[in-house]
Amino acid sequence: MINKVVADAREAVSGIKDDMTVMFGGFGLCGIAENCILAVRDSGVTGLTCISNNAGVDDFGLGFLLATRQVKKMISSYVGENDEFERQMLSGELDVELIPQGTLAERCRAAGAGIPAFFTPAGYGTEVGEGKEVRSFDGKPHILEHAFDAQFAFVKAWKGDEAGNLIFKGTARNFNPMMAMAGKITVAEVEELVPAGELDPAQIHTPGIFVQRIFQGKNYEKRIEQRTTRPRNP
Amino acid sequence: MINKVVADAREAVSGIKDDMTVMFGGFGLCGIAENCILAVRDSGVTGLTCISNNAGVDDFGLGFLLATRQVKKMISSYVGENDEFERQMLSGELDVELIPQGTLAERCRAAGAGIPAFFTPAGYGTEVGEGKEVRSFDGKPHILEHAFDAQFAFVKAWKGDEAGNLIFKGTARNFNPMMAMAGKITVAEVEELVPAGELDPAQIHTPGIFVQRIFQGKNYEKRIEQRTTRPRNP
Amino acid sequence: MLDKNGIAQRIAQEMQDGWYVNLGIGIPTLVANYIPQGISVEFQSENGVLGMGPFPFEGEEDPDLINAGKQTITTMPGASFFDSAMSFAMIRGQHVQMTVLGAMEVSENGDIANWKIPGRMVKGMGGAMDLVASAENIIVAMMHTNKKGESKLLPNCSLPLTGVGCVRKIVTNLAVMDVREGSFHLVERAPGVTVQEIVEATAGALVVPEDVPEMRL
Amino acid sequence: MLDKNGIAQRIAQEMQDGWYVNLGIGIPTLVANYIPQGISVEFQSENGVLGMGPFPFEGEEDPDLINAGKQTITTMPGASFFDSAMSFAMIRGQHVQMTVLGAMEVSENGDIANWKIPGRMVKGMGGAMDLVASAENIIVAMMHTNKKGESKLLPNCSLPLTGVGCVRKIVTNLAVMDVREGSFHLVERAPGVTVQEIVEATAGALVVPEDVPEMRL
User: Fold this and answer.
1) Does D180 contact chain B (CB < 8 Å)?
2) Contact criterion met (CB < 8 Å) for A201 and D75
3) Contact at 8 Å (CB) between A100 and A128?
4) Contact A224 C63 (CB under 8 A)
5) Which residues on adjacent β-strands are paired with residue D54?
6) Is residue B230 part of a domain?
7) CA–CA gap between residue A69 and residue A84 (Å, rounded)
8) Summary mean pLDDT of chain D
9) Residue B222 has what pLDDT?
10) Is pTM beyond 0.90 here?
11) How confident is the model at residue D199 (pLDDT cuts 50, 70, 90)?
């Protein structure tokens, strides 16, 4: 079998070029490809169109790529908690396309599943629906949405094997599986990389067929954005 | 929490009525809801439209419902290995709609996911595409397919818990998860029913939200259609 | 008059045993604190969890276990994790029985605006557009008027819409109202609030029945 | 002239290291027996498994572990199971690099008919329509002529189509042909078969280059 295992993040992002469209998994700072983001930054590419549910924070996650102005356009459902993002958006340096979260997820899945377009009720009658085809089903209006097209997808999993199979932990799964399906080249970084055969085939979240490159990441910070707790009973 | 656990298959199929559209999970005889099929037979309902990838064999699986002529129409991707089926189809007693397997799966998922219609390349230029809307994406023609609408879905899982969460074994998963999503009332029969909390939340294949009734089935035959083996080395 | 917790408490009374519920950020989050006795519901968070539990004890926070507000959480027995496509399949497919979310404006025909104020930094709609376009049972939790004292219940929304004709019920600090047939319908008064106060605070068409009971909390 | 195993062996030469391959029922199934040395491929079966292994030893058959032909199978290290929607996502999304299937007829523009004979019991297309409409690399494995001795390589298919303009390569008992620009293009002769025999057995437009090498197995 062709070896999907690459040595590190630097090798994993090789081939990324200026003006590409790339996907980044994660929800907020949960389940983001920390190693790949830094490697993309260090690669020096510019003009990226990034498809990611969120845009990181000022000093972490995709905030790194915004700080260096490597991003031309963000396609997200929710951005914020990011002063540099706001500054670039308001100044017109950064183009932002906001998409309903479910539509974002489904457009990723559609890209991976060979479904070029589908109807959804989300966004009908709003700015999101402007200029889009409207059709009613059972009397309810829907809009036509299209699959994304991304050259790279950078996803983060908990465990992975050398065949590219991935298992995610808790809510760190989020957009990672669909983006893995959607990327022409999908790069997976994992906390633990094991030989093929060590993961239970019934528990694979993302089958290896969707993953072209895989490596074990390092130095995970896994920052918490909103640390909420409750008191222990006395 | 409302109790989803029902006593047996008879209680599980209560409410099924003549002329309903119902889904049955399984691929061939693998992963079929053996208990529910018998209970549907014993309920005496007739005029059913059955959505199922296959139609069982003469003396097992959906063959039981064909033998009693409770099925008005089969919607499947592949039928055969069933003499009574052939006889009823050729005599015009049974209506049969054949659908590409991937389209069948996707129409089930679409029903469960609130996607009323989607484009697929499968079937373009064939009988399957006749009368359907055609649209080209990137120069490739696709046809528009619609979500199914089913009152009941009968699925079979390996393990389930009282919250309705399901885990499937091997290739017995097949159509069961999408049909579970699609049924207005989804009935799950499982080989082992455990209290909520005993299954790992990260390993659930079908979240309980899709399952309205669940019970532990009995007397599973799990027939093999094509027993293929290789010799042991001497 | 109700405070935010009172609004949450009143909305919690709408829950039915066995329901799956999605709570938005802000007042809706508080609803989880007031589940009526004898009722059990499961909370869905659109980032990929069903069966959310309370916040973790200090020191037990898991960065891989958060809700859609990015808060650290726990799970209850019977919980499940799934990806975002599956999560919105649940929402779009109407498997979630009740959705509670805040609003900046609601119109008398049920339009809702809660994601964008022109001229200000826009953070995005997140999952709100999917939720309001899909759910059959959308309850809005909000103050009856904005900080300037202007009604948030309008003939038409002035802000960019999140969804059209989707709100079924509104619970504010002043009242409970149903939304149907192009009007707000007054159902209950908050404790100590008069019908006249509600009428004055409502800019859109308000149908007032003869008897408007005071809500019981 | 090749037998069925020879056809399978020749098709196996088309496989490249690391490819994901879907094999149809019949001759295509035999391709798995001839994977060239030094090459590793993973077999996908559309009922929901990637990384299929050989048949189980007698007594080790698992009714919950079958392929799309409903045969009992085993899995290789690195295998995964998934549902039918995910399986056809792989196929429709062109993640499977090579699809081999049988045919009753192929036309010179790459149309394929392999699922229905009018007037006979129709068993259904199964996953064939999804496979042929999606895959970029479809190889047909079949006999050059039918039982009556009539060519199965036609100007136009006479049977109901499975897919249009999708076949890229055909391997028969007589020859290897590429399909492009509205013609069959002769690439290789089977051992002991003359160009003339191939021309006579081919009803559709056949482009014959000056040199047609005999295939090496």
Assistant:
1) no
2) yes
3) yes
4) yes
5) none
6) no
7) 10
8) 96
9) 97
10) yes
11) very high
Please state the rounded mean pLDDT for residues D171-194. Answer: 98
Across the interface, whether the CB atoms of B181 and C89 are under 8 A apart is answered yes
Helix H, strand E, coil C: the string for chain C is CCCHHHHHHHHHCCCCCCCEEEECCCHHHHHHHHCCCCCCCEEEECCCEEEECCCCECCCCCCCCECCCCEECCEEEEEEECCHHHHHHHHHCCCCCEEEECCCEEECCCCEECCCCCCCCCCCCCCHHHHHHHCCCEEEECCCECCCCCECEECCCCCCCCECCCCCEEECCCEEEEEECCEEEEEEECCCCCHHHHHHHCCCCEECCCCCCECCC
> Which of D73, D107, D130, D156 should we substitute to test contact with B (largest number of B Cβ atoms within 10 Å)?
D130
User: Is it the case that residue C111 has pLDDT exceeding 90?
Assistant: yes
Range of the domain at B102: 9-117+149-200
Q: How much is the mean pLDDT over chain B?
A: 96
State residue A104's pLDDT score: 98
Minimal Cβ distance to B120: which of A115, A121, A202? A115
In a domain, B220, yes or no: no
Strand order from edge to edge, sheet including C206-207? C75-81, C49-52, C42-45, C20-23, C98-101, C138-141, C169-171, C175-180, C183-189, C206-207
Q: In this complex, is the C-beta atom of D95 within 8 Å of any C-beta atom belonging to chain A?
A: yes
pLDDT band at A234 (very low <50, low <70, confident <90, very high): low
DSSP B180: H
On whether residue A207 sits in a domain, the answer given is no
Could you read off the pLDDT of D45-98 as tens digits, one per residue? Answer: 999 999 999 999 999 999 999 999 999 999 999 999 999 999 999 999 999 999
Residue in D14, D42, D46, D58 annotated catalytic: D46
The pLDDT of residue D18 is: 95
Asked if A110 contacts A116 with a C-beta cutoff of 8 angstroms, the reply is yes
Chain C positions touching B195 (Cβ under 8 A) are 77
Chain C partners (3+ C-beta pairs within 8 A): A, B
Bridge partners of A150? Answer: A183
Cβ within 8 Å, pair B202-A167: yes
B209 in A contact zone (CB under 8 Å): no
CA distances (Å), origin B224, targets B136, B191, C129, D64: 42, 17, 47, 9
Contact state of A178 with C84 under an 8 Å Cβ cutoff: yes
- State whether residue B171 sits within 8 Å of chain D by CB: yes
Is A115 in Cβ contact with D78 (below 8 Å)?
no
B148-161 confidence digits (pLDDT tens):
999 999 999 999 99
D46 catalytic, yes or no? Answer: yes
Q: What pLDDT, on the 0 to 100 scale, is given for residue D187? A: 98
Mean pLDDT along residues C114-142: 92
Amino acid type, D210:
E
Report the CATH number at residue B103: 3.40.1080.10
- Contact residues, B window 161-190, toward A, CB-based 8 Å cutoff: 167-170, 173
Give the best residue of A115, A138, A169 to mutate against chain B (max B CB count within 10 A): A115
The pLDDT of residue A1: 58
Q: From the CA of D105, how many Å to the nearest CA of chain B?
A: 14
* Cα gap D162→C7, rounded to integer Å: 60
Distance from CA of B232 to the nearest CA of D (A): 6
Question: Per-residue pLDDT for B80 more than 80?
Answer: no
Name the domain count of chain B: 1
The reported pLDDT for the residue numbered B121 is 98
What part of B 122-161 touches C (C-beta under 8 Å)? 161
pLDDT confidence band for A34 (50 / 70 / 90): very high
**Is A228 a domain residue?**
no
Measure B213 CA to nearest chain C CA, in Å: 12
Indicate if the pLDDT at residue B34 is higher than 70.
Answer: yes
**A151-194: pLDDT as tens digits:** 999 999 999 999 999 999 999 999 999 999 999 999 999 999 99
